[in-house]
Amino acid sequence: MVDQSPILVVGATGRHGGTGNFVAHELNRRGVLVRALVRQHDSRSEALQASGIEVVLGDLHDERSLKGAVEGVKAAYFTYPIAGGVVPAAANFAVAARDAGVERAVIMSMGITRQDSPSPLGRAQWLAEEVLQWSGLATINLRVAALFAENIDLLHRDDILIDGVLRNSFSDVPLSWITGEDAGKLAIAALLHPERLNGERTIYPTGGAQASYPEIAQALSERLGRPIRHETVPRKDWADRLVHLSLSDARLSPEMAEHISTVGIALRQKLPMNQLFEELTHEKPTSMLDAIASGMVGGGLEPT
Predict the structure, then answer these.
(1) How far apart are CA 149 and CA 301, in angstroms?
(2) In angstroms, rounded to a whole number, what is the distance separating the alpha carbons of residues 256 and 239?
(3) Among 40-44, 153-157, 241-245, which stretch is predicted with the lowest mean pLDDT?
(4) Out of 35, 188, 288, 302, which residue is the most buried by the measure of CB atoms under 10 Å away?
(5) Domain 151-175+208-271+284-299 falls in which CATH fold?
(6) Phi-psi region for residue 101, left (φ > 0), alpha (ψ -120 to 50) or beta?
(7) Do the domains spanning 7-145+179-203 and 151-175+208-271+284-299 agree at the CATH topology level?
(8) pLDDT tens across 62-98, in order?
(9) What gap in Å lies between CA 150 and CA 301, rounded to an integer?
């Protein structure tokens, strides 16, 4: 008998990277019943409904509000912004999911997640994953060992437009990158084909071909038709800059500023790549330089 229970997608209206939104729409396109958890009804939730996706209002910080979202669900996609609060959010979700009989969850995570992570958010994400597992859920942790390509537009737009500089705490070491859409493909494969993981519950997939920030600056120079350079600055200077930007951009926060600037210091050596993306999705990931050349990355860097 075909399972007719919906897959619950948390973060289906998320803006940065659009991963949850891609997961919801792609599952729906494949004929899977999808239920999207949203915090409020707006144009983004209306777009989900218009495509035939069930939309349920709820808040990860209010366990009572999640009961309708998890009812009748067997599998879920769980994600949380790069911000504070992931542990209580996971605890609320875990309780609601346990009581409703949810069996498994795919968790969008990050490569720096571990008990002794240099990032406070990395340590919090590790604890959140532990809480979800303690609840009895069969969890798959996608600790993506790559930076989101969309970070270029989010974190650097103003500096590039004003000064022509990619300014951050990263050095010139080649890094792994992944697009939000490719991260979504990982989640979809884990939801629909968990057997491809061969029993592994925590994996560290990398993205497309590695690229350093100087290489990205050169690619942006060619794409935008003006010189762009990369400049490594002290961690605190970049964190302070991101905190300032967070005052006018809700996608950023002081916690994210601390996290990404700390990651910049931690990634000072070239890390190995793997084929987990291809093995899980049966596709090739998009490289950062190809994403820039195609306009997938850098579209927000055109002068307004």
Answers:
(1) 13
(2) 9
(3) 40-44
(4) 288
(5) UDP-galactose 4-epimerase; domain 1 (3.90.25)
(6) left
(7) no
(8) 999 999 999 999 999 999 999 999 999 999 999 999 9
(9) 11
173: amino acid identity, one letter: V
Domain ranges of the chain: 7-145+179-203, 151-175+208-271+284-299
Cα separation, 66 vs 83, in Å, equals 20
Is 184 exposed, middle or buried (CB count within 10 Å of its CB: 0-12, 13-18, 19+)?
A: buried
CA separation for the pair 196, 84 (Å, rounded):
32
Tokens describing residue 154 = 């989010």
CB 226 within 8 A of CB 303: no
CA distance 152 to 150: 5
For the whole model, what pTM was predicted?
Answer: 0.94
Closest to 148 in 3D by CA, of 246, 256, 288, 266: 288
Q: What angle do CA 151, 110, 263 make, to 5 degrees?
A: 60
User: If you ran DSSP here, which 8-state letter would residue 50 be given?
Assistant: H
DSSP states along 121-186? HHHHHHHHHHHHHHTT-EEEEEEE-SEETTHHHHHHHHHHHHHSEEEES--S--B-EE-HHHHHHH
Q: How many CA atoms lie within 13 A of 68 on its CB side?
A: 11
Check if the beta carbon of residue 166 is closer than 8 Å to that of residue 160: yes
Q: What CATH homologous superfamily does 7-145+179-203 map to?
A: NAD(P)-binding Rossmann-like Domain (3.40.50.720)
Cα(first)–Cα(last) distance of the chain, in Å? 54
**Which residues contact residue 272 at a Cβ distance below 8 angstroms, ignoring those fewer than 6 apart?**
none
Residue (of 115, 121, 185, 175) closest to 148 by Cα position: 175
- In this predicted structure, the answer to whether residue 160 has a pLDDT above a threshold of 50 is yes
Contact call for residues 142 and 108 (beta carbons, < 8 A): yes
